[in-house]
């Protein structure tokens, strides 16, 4: 599908560039986009043509991601990068601690020092795989109270799925501007440069850095042609560019480490673009939640928004899953998430409200990690309540939780293992689940 920006009548708002994986195009100045070819002898308006490849040239058409950018200066015009400090950002492979089978939970990140921008405010919890082998993921949290000023970030190691929990992220990217607040997610593709501004003050949230195959929509199988996250609800930005001079510090995450170069101009200077390797925004409130209308409830994979497939069919490098407001109507059914042990590893975060498997202790901005095969499920209070609840149709509407579910165990950074905001005694939520057998038979 081809989506072209049209400006329509004078003063009209350009229509949204909507649709997942579409061949979008956008120009901030009319005539900036060449017609009928990507790299004409002279690009329009004196711009430089440049291709940005998110997948190998030769990957199958259905997975191939690339964009053509028409910019004031080519990205190649830059001085050398030099190493800078990583702050509290870490990269895969994660080898600072031993893999830990225990169940873990954290409170939200504490307040950062004044003047902490998005990059400085990134704090890595852990991850798996190896950025150098383009496998696995890193789980970061962020807490920022200052806009990025004369500073731009790009990540060679993977795409960044940003999940704000507090505040608003204004993402000024090479492709234009997107704004994401709580309940929305934004994706910055691998290598795309961006600056984060904070139009609503301090911001906090989560980041899934996906080293593997780019996120895509899950197959729908018997669900049919519609449902879950609908492709039309993903929105790309309109082209917008900066003509500002430098100096601008361009920070690059490369194989887990931060490098920086002093540019004499902003690299956010793309006047027009077309392609498929494009930032996008999605509003989780548009997720079409499907579930059982008879008994039991489906496995939580039914809530998958985006998936990064691996070479094993059905076994994701990472799934992004949302637990959105929904109705529970199952008859003779234990309605909260069941007790389970999972070959996949689950990191959960909470954007707002409460999660229906945990009565307390799981706070917005906090998170839990249940590594491969670690046993978990509803806490004692939730179990007791759900086991005796009257099973009328029930709307679960007071929370928005999500999960990064990954095929490999997550190893913590040292700072996450030893964090003062890590909850001691998380195991206690399952205390008191005593043997009820043999229960008295119903008379
Ligand atoms: Fe689970």
UniProtKB/TrEMBL annotation:
Transmembrane segments annotated in the record for this chain: none
Domain Homogentisate 1,2-dioxygenase N-terminal intervals: 17-284
Keyword Oxidoreductase listed: yes
Pfam hit, one: HgmA_N
Active site, UniProt feature: 297
UniProt pathway: Amino-acid degradation; L-phenylalanine degradation; acetoacetate and fumarate from L-phenylalanine: step 4/6
Binding site for homogentisate: 376
GO molecular function: homogentisate 1,2-dioxygenase activity
Cofactor annotation: Fe cation
Major enzyme class: oxidoreductase
Gene3D superfamilies named among the record's database cross-references: Jelly Rolls
InterPro entries xrefs: HgmA_C, HgmA_N, Homogentis_dOase, Homogentis_dOase_bac, RmlC-like_jellyroll, RmlC_Cupin_sf
Chemical reaction(s) catalysed: homogentisate + O2 = 4-maleylacetoacetate + H(+)
Annotated EC: 1.13.11.5
Domain Homogentisate 1,2-dioxygenase C-terminal per the UniProt entry, residue ranges: 285-436
Keywords, sorted A to Z: Dioxygenase, Iron, Metal-binding, Oxidoreductase, Phenylalanine catabolism, Tyrosine catabolism
Residue ranges of the region described as Disordered: 1-38, 81-101
Purpose of the protein: Involved in the catabolism of homogentisate (2,5-dihydroxyphenylacetate or 2,5-OH-PhAc), a central intermediate in the degradation of phenylalanine and tyrosine. Catalyzes the oxidative ring cleavage of the aromatic ring of homogentisate to yield maleylacetoacetate.
Family: Belongs to the homogentisate dioxygenase family.
Assembly mode: Hexamer; dimer of trimers.
Protein name as annotated: Homogentisate 1,2-dioxygenase
UniProt organism field: Streptomyces chisholmiae
Gene name for this UniProt entry: hmgA
